[in-house]
Amino acid sequence: MAADDEAPRVALVGNPNSGKTAVFNAITGSRQKVANYAGVTVEKKEGVFVSPAGTRVRVIDLPGTYSLRARSPDEAVTRDVVLGRMDGEEVPDAIVFVADATNLRLNLRLALELKSLGRPIILALNMMDAAEKQGLDIDAAELSAELGMAVVTTVAVRKGGVESLLDQIDRTIQVAETEGWSHVPHQCGWSEPGSRELRDYTREVERILARAVRSPAKPHLATRRLDTVLLHPVAGLAILFAILFLMFQAVFTWAELPMELIDTGLAALSAWLTGAMPDGPLRSLLVDGVIAGVGSVVIFLPQILVLFFFIQLLEDSGYMARAAFLLDKLMGGVGLHGRAFIPLLSSFACAVPGIMAARTIENRADRIATIMIAPLMTCSARLPVYTLIIAAFVPDRAVLGGWVGLQGLVMFALYAAGILSGLLVAFVIKHSVLKGVREPLLMQLPAYRLPRPRNVALGLYDRGKAFLLRAGTTIFALMVLVWFLGSFPAPPPEATEPAIRYSVAGAIGHALEPLLAPIGFNWQIALALVPGMAAREVAVGVLGTIYALSEAGDALQGSLAAVLAQSWSLPTALSLLAWYVFAPQCLATLGVVRRELNSRFWPLVMFVFLTALAYGAAFATFRVASALVGS
Amino acid sequence: MTSALQHPHPTTALRLGSLRKGATAEIVGLDDSAVASALQPGELERRLIEMGLVEGAHVEVLHEGFPKRDPIAVRVNDHTVALRRAEADAVLVLVLTTERRPR
């Protein structure tokens, strides 16, 4: 909107954990949108509000930082926007510096650094309720005089808790308008502070605090007591693993019903379309391409929402930093950062949100290593394939004295193979391509806070929308492509074999067959792997089509298992399982890697090394099994 | 860069990375010259200052990680910072009280 472009812009800056996002949510409510900054995959959150005096004001929420010297891509965005160096972004007209009032010493240093920019700054002392409870008594007028900036107090999570800030934004805008916006220089004279300047800022903060603070905030005792348990070397790790187990369970059990509903809904939709439209390429595109393809990704939305619900709770409560603390040394054994565990955990549901969650890792090399091994965590799309082959080839009998079922043991071995090879790959990557000492762990452990339902809901809404948008664009395009490959050219009228056999996908499958013969795959498997690129579990349906079965769902799995047990050798089946542990059989994953790392190189690397691993593992499995079985 | 040598009591200064749980201390200097790091020279020092680990700050080792009691959680004046012992070695401290007796 043209009117919006002329509205004054206010940037929210502050330390991580200062409640900046809560202030943003309180000011803008649902009138916010999340996008990406051009060229970097850092989220840009912008919103609009109408001030008490009736002015439309645009607000941008910038990534939290301790300094304008940027360390991560996130912090670089904060620096570039504030300094007006970001392409397509004007210098903000005013800065609202959100400070955690319980923690002024750490927060005010950045406020002084920002002051040197010469912009109008409003200091919002946030979480004032908690600060007063902890005994803080502060002379806001004195603080304002000493700092040379307007000071207001806010409680962002309370209704009406930001009114004083809104009033002050009005006053600041008025002053700026009478003096003229153009007075503000467009390139600011900020230069990176050295350790001497940083020490000077620190001393200045001490001097100001000595004058303005009548009684300091006492440390948060509840946090300290909780941490003696939650950060305990034994109890803390046990609790962490219990939380992870609960989360893992919930991803599968809570999401089951909504996933079934989506599945039923999609089946009804495609049945309706099949009935309502004449047979032809358009109907096939809609039913087999769009609904089946995009549907196979959208069906994971419930799992992703459950997962992000837990992640949001852990983040908002302050536990996430503790988890990184607890796991840092253990994950450091293979060169991973403590923060890598959430992305890897998410990948057991689906690698796509897992790779997106790797954004919290500051260092690019650490982040790439995490993203590269995310697809090795067994995602839920691999389960239908595993189930099918295990049912067909692994006898249902108890081993180890009757305590463990052999089928379950094989399933567990497949999960373990994924995890162990992931750790091994991380070790190799971090000791070869992405060598170097690990990024230091210098992380604030914030005081524990109760998550606010409103913030959790807004966060979930953002993430669900981002996932659906991706499914609606990138994944949609890929699915249409795969459908096209599998449908054209059409089979000749005298065709005796399934239609897909004559298509481009069929030709690719046949061309691949000699390549895959050494690992024991026949042409039917080779062919099923091509559409399986869209979504792994599609391969099961394609195998059903090839073996000319008309059943659907469980019936298909049952009878297909019987057919496969007849027509495949055991080494072939085991080889296919080994292949599926490693193979990058998912275009959506490669697409999201390309987007998140903003690189064509890394998805290519991922594809090549995972394919090589899959081929090697399948080859070894096939040869060893053949020698043992003697076929 | 302020080194320990400029401090009046250089002989009693210890590295923060060597303290055990329960110890309290005052920071007397920063010296990252002996710390292996992927960062530019002087960068670790600046990051430590930005996290409040600067001369005059009071610290207390609150928690130790696992295994090898690494990383550590340190209360720095009013807030708590987690860091690895390797980087904590860049922080020179005068110990005020040593660890509590093990229970």
Offer a few descriptive terms.
heterodimer; A: 631 residues; alpha/beta; seven-stranded mixed β-sheet; 27 helices; 9% strand; B: 103 residues; mainly beta; SH3 type barrels; 2 helices; 6 strands; 32% strand; globular
Structure description:
The complex is a heterodimer of chains A (631) and B (103). With 631 residues, chain A is an alpha/beta fold. Chain A has a domain at 2-218: 3-Layer(aba) Sandwich (Rossmann fold). Chain A has helices spanning 2-6, 20-28, 73-83, 104-115, 128-133, 140-147, 163-179, 195-212, 221-230, 235-253, 256-276, 281-298, 301-317, 319-332, 341-346, 351-357, 364-373, 383-393, 406-430, 453-487, 504-516, 523-532, 538-546, 553-567, 570-582, 587-597, 601-629, and strands at 9-14, 32-36, 43-50, 56-61, 94-100, 121-126, 137-138, 150-153, 213-215, 398-399, 404-405, 442-444. The longest helix of chain A is centred in the last third of the chain and has 35 residues, at 453-487. Chain B contains 2 helices and 6 strands. Chain B has a 6-stranded antiparallel β-sheet. The A-B interface holds A 66-67, 69, 71, 102-106, 109, 193-195, 198-199, 202, 206, 216-217, 219, 223-224, 227-228, 231-234, 236-237, 321, 324-326, 328-330, 363, 436-445 and B 1, 30, 36-39, 42, 44-52, 54-56, 62-71, 73, 75, 77-84, 87.
How would you summarize the topology of this molecule?
The complex is a heterodimer of chains A (631) and B (103).
Chain A: H1 2-6, E1 9-14, H2 20-28, E2 32-36, E3 43-50, E4 56-61, H3 73-83, E5 94-100, H4 104-115, E6 121-126, H5 128-133, E7 137-138, H6 140-147, E8 150-153, H7 163-179, H8 195-212, E9 213-215, H9 221-230, H10 235-253, H11 256-276, H12 281-298, H13 301-317, H14 319-332, H15 341-346, H16 351-357, H17 364-373, H18 383-393, E10 398-399, E11 404-405, H19 406-430, E12 442-444, H20 453-487, H21 504-516, H22 523-532, H23 538-546, H24 553-567, H25 570-582, H26 587-597, H27 601-629
Parallel strand pairs in A: 1-4, 1-5, 5-6, 6-8
Antiparallel strand pairs in A: 2-3, 3-4, 7-9, 10-11
Helix pairs in contact in A: 4-8, 6-8, 9-10, 10-13, 11-12, 12-20, 13-20, 16-26, 17-19, 18-24, 18-25, 19-25, 21-22, 22-23, 25-27, 26-27
Chain B: E1 14-15, E2 24-30, H1 43-50, E3 58-64, E4 72-76, E5 79-83, H2 85-88, E6 91-97
Antiparallel strand pairs in B: 1-6, 2-3, 2-6, 3-4, 4-5
